[in-house]
Amino acid sequence: MQRSAAKVMATVFWEAKGVILLDILPQGQSINAAQYCSALDRLRDAIRRKRPGLLRRGVVFQHDNAAPHSANLTQQWLQRFG
Fold first, then answer.
1. How far apart are CA 31 and CA 68, in angstroms?
2. Is 65 left (phi over 0), alpha (psi -120 to 50) or beta?
3. For the segment 8-29, what is each residue's pLDDT rounded down to a tens digit?
4. How far apart are CA 61 and CA 7, in angstroms?
5. Please, which residues have CB within 8 angstroms of residue 27's CB and are 6 or more apart in sequence?
């Protein structure tokens, strides 16, 4: 019997010119607000490296109402971001 492929949780951040960051969560973990904010930190660093003018023009996040997106910790991070 073959073992099936493991599930992978990934968050993809992109804009019109392409993917800015592909953030893969360690196997067996699910996303929470703290992990999502860490991904946002990595996103900010990736934007600075790959699309430096984007931060000056402003970044728009399109979130759904998933708990990690709407958590107070995430909302505070977003307020500091921009």
1. 7
2. alpha
3. 889 999 998 999 999 999 888 8
4. 26
5. 6, 7, 8
Residues in the chain, total: 82
pLDDT tens, position by position, 35-51? 999 999 999 999 999 99
DSSP 25: E
| DSSP bridge partners of 68 | none
Separation of alpha carbons 13 and 73, rounded Å:
19
Query: Which tops the pLDDT comparison, 55 or 77?
Result: 77
Backbone angles phi, psi at 50, to 5 degrees: -95, -35
